[in-house]
Amino acid sequence: MNVQRRSFIAGLATLGIAPSVLSNDAPALVRHDVVVVGGGPAGVCAAIAAARHGADVLVVEQGNCLGGMATQGLVGPFMTCYDTTGEVQLIKGIFDEIVRRMVSIGGAIHPSEVRKGTSFAAWHTVGHDHLTPFEPEALKFVLDDICAESGVKVLYHATFTAPMMEGNRISGVEVFTKAGFKRIGASVVIDATGDGDVAFRAGAPCELGDTERACAMQPATMFFRIGNLPETAVEAVRAKYPQDNRAFMTLLKQARADGSWSIPRPHINIYRGVKSDEWFVNVSRLTGVDGTEPESLSNGETQGRRQVRETIAFLRKYVPGAQDLRLLSTASTLGIRETRHVQGEYVLGKDDILEGRRPSDSVVLCSNSIDLHGGAGRSGTLYIAVKNGTSYGVPYRSLVPQKVEGLLVAGRCVSATSVAAAAIRVVPPCMAMGQAAGTAAAMAVAGSVAPRGVDAAALVATLRADGVAI
Length: 470
Ligand SMILES: Cc1cc2nc3c(=O)[nH]c(=O)nc-3n(C[C@H](O)[C@H](O)[C@H](O)COP(=O)(O)OP(=O)(O)OC[C@H]3O[C@@H](n4cnc5c(N)ncnc54)[C@H](O)[C@@H]3O)c2cc1C
Hints:
By secondary structure, this protein is of the alpha/beta class. It contains twelve helices and 17 strands. The N and C termini lie far apart (48 Å).
């Protein structure tokens, strides 16, 4: 890219204008039926579903593995895939297939065997029944295998830079790779970047964060894994301080008083992994991070790792039996809970969730509670559990962005308000939304129709035939 062009793009960014222009030096076009941008939980399920329905599919992923936040972000366990009675598994389909494949290699415990109030659920009793503990490395292997078996092609180390537009229709994407820019044509593009990068640059309306709260975004978290911390040591602390309804609250108060705890969180979410002495730790709290802004993101990564070190020092000092714990790994990418919400044909709202609405074009049914970190003040979490027995639908219209043709969205960035997104952003619904988007994309290609024109009733019937519980 020449200097003039680079400063032109930088100038656009300064003005807040999305640089949806293509590079001049991109080599010749390759084409696929469906290009999925982002290989996280939503993108990978979209790709598998589209390929199984006959489409030629390419996933472009900026990282070196599939799984997104669940592998690179070390986020786990998978939140619930059951209804609130704990009796019915709502999310099945490709999600359940992935889980069972991990179970078969010793890399996960099936959610049917995991109950609320246990170490697997960080002892939470509300909204945390039937979670799925898993090994991120097992997930990487399983996703590689299922994609290969389904005929999905994957291009790693490829970052989306700009959409290829023909009027208001996206006809492909430009990505940046080790070999420079590449242009990839597509009949349908699925934006599964989590951040809505493609939809935003293609001109679909997007909201950044919660517009009712001055565009506040949920705080970010640097996940990490520790080993050699016996479950008995954590249980002993819980037994000693029965008044603590969350892990380590009394000890953290002491640590704050003696100046060794500065993280704005009064407890530690510590989830037992598949092995009894390994834990996934969700505690760091980085407010004010904008995951769409490079400098903010970079600062968040450094601050996140600082908070990891502080947490390890706390555990070693205050928890008897934790002196020899080992840091297994910090996430290779900061955990971003919220950025853009692409505005679609339907914007899923809080009432849809709490009233258990199931529109006729529902492509996902789930019962995940609203878990809005920062929603009760900068450090507090607004948690609204859905009523017992309630489940709600995510309509196909929430996957179809306004104003841009040839494009679907899936996962964290689908069309929902900030509060509603706080319920459906977890892994099982994201995988289910991906399966729906991929199936719809293949139907659009096969029928030579735009994704907006896909017959929702036929889509729902196809998903049902594929084992999706709707
Ligand atoms: C701190 C934190 C804790 C969480 N805890 C849990 C939990 O305990 N259980 C649970 O089920 N869920 C949890 N979640 C939610 C869940 O992990 C995510 O919301 C979910 O992974 C979203 O899936 P996705 O596929 O939409 O996006 P992501 O998982 O973010 O995947 C997006 C993929 O797109 C790629 N990508 C992004 N931009 C580009 C680009 N421009 N070009 C190419 N590739 C790109 C990324 O590298 C990534 O692989 C948590 C999330 C966070 C941040």
